[in-house]
Amino acid sequence: MADDVLSSCLGMAPIYSNASEAEEGAEQEKQPTEKTNTKSKPEKRKSITEKTVKAKKKKKSKQTQCIIPQKKETEDEKSTKPPKKRKKKKTITDVLATSEPKPGCPADLQNLITQHFSDKRSVIEQEELKLQDSCFLSSNDLTHSLSSYLKQVCPKWAKIQKQHTEKSSVVLLIVCSSALRTIDLIKQLTTFKGEAKAVKLFAKHIKIEEQVKLLQKGVTHVGVGTPGRISALIEKEGLNLQALRYLVLDWNWRDQKLRRMVDIPEIKQDLMKLLESGILNGCKDDKPKVRVMGKEKAKSGPLARRPDNSAFKQQRLPAWSPMLTANTVLPFFYFMSLICMLLGVWLLLTVQSTQEIKVDYTHAGTCNMCFETLKNMSNAGKSCTCTVEFSIEKPFKGDVFFYYGLQNFHQNLRRYMDSRDDAQMVGRKENLKNPSIYCEPFKKDQNGLPIAPCGAVANSIFNDSFTLTYIGSSGASHRVPLLRRGITWYTDKNVKFRNPKMDNLTLAQVFEDTAKPLYWQKPVYELDPHQATNNGFINDDLIVWMREAAFPNFKKLYGILYRANNPFTKGLPAGTYNISISYNFPVQYFRGRKQVVLTTLTWFGGQNHFLPIAYLVTSSLILLIAVVLTVVWLKFGKNGKNMEE
User: Compositional bias (Basic residues) at which positions (predicted)?
Assistant: First the structure.
């Protein structure tokens, strides 16, 4: 049955498998012919509607007979089919991009010259107008900026620019179609031209006499303009082409009407006139060189930000990458381990060459009595003096530095560090009488007077004082001279901390109507009674204290040994020493401790073991890694199969 339907659909006779089927089929074919012959009697005319309905039914029946029955698609098969993707409609930019003409080439210029002069010149004259290949410059049309394009066209521009000294002439001439295009090209020339001078050569709003004067006024290196104005300048002898070495034609740029320079009849005529005025004859002597500028940089779309086609921006610079093999990696690890070990040992020996002694005087000697006295807040303003004795076994040679140290004092707390007024410390009078709000609650005293210096940092200044005495072998005592000046950084002393302007006043008059910090015993202008220049905001002890420490345990410089007199010319001799301490700074409230540190310094600084230990630990780790890699290589590296397993 299916074969009958298929054959009827294709307009072919049915195919039968045997003779009996063929006879039955022949009888069935005869029946309709007999029926048609019997219909010889006239019938009534049927209406048009009945005929059309029957015709539609016949068409439907014929169509159903010709359709081969197919299995209905299951829901699972429909779900497995991927959704149809909609085709994106092409935009105008896509159409323009695909229909964009090819970049200009020397053959296009040659064909244009031939077509233009075909009616005016003879065959022999036309042959003379043909330009040789040596007349044209070769450059990369994929360059995406005018400056990089011209760098390829004129690789020796810097040298040519310096050699050009003639007036009313240019070395590089760029010919374009309009004044707006001229301005745009000059803006793009900034990177290329450097110190060279560029001039605009077009007729819009600029008289030709002005351009002639401008060219005669000084040396011009680059000219950018339209062919009509350039030809007019040549005719009036305002522009000389003898020094011209490069001619660039803006061939493929299009205006708003999508017209190129050669598509506009007037500009095309001016261009041919310009070429005929002396450029074509000069090209025969290879002067100037001509370049037809190719495809311009895409200003929109995905290529708008593509970098220039240079070796640096396109990552084509020559590079060297090491081959990481066992023969290169293992020696490198051993070498680095050796270097770190040598540095660590050297720094350790340097640190050990320094001499240092620490004396904790919080509870030492008679200072324990002072400690107990200051526990009572009512005794905060009272002075207490104590002495501590210590001995030095080996002499301290060279410069000796005297430090005071504090433990468990957190100067790096943010609220503490912000509680200061740097503008006041630099000597501004407006901040002297009106301190910053950050100084609260140490901004003003109980009487409403501004505090100078204000803030918690200045209020908590370390106010212990020391007197160091050396007891010689004969029992004679010598006071150790300490330099109390020159212990600050230069920038702190001369930049960050300054006294207000005196204006023929004393320092006490300058700080009039200000109050001392709450915990201070003296005002700021009386900190050093022995040296008048060491008072106010430039006091060395104040400056040293105002530089906050990063860690809770720190030391700050108090003085430097003065080695002018015996027996301290070579340093501190070995023996017994006595420190007389004015015990004023309380530490019991924050569970801190106080100490005195005497030390010598090297180029590396004081006695600090952290850096040498860090180098030695790093050396050990690198050495351990090198040994592990060596074992792995000896066991697996020589046999690739074992390494893969």
Answer: 81-90
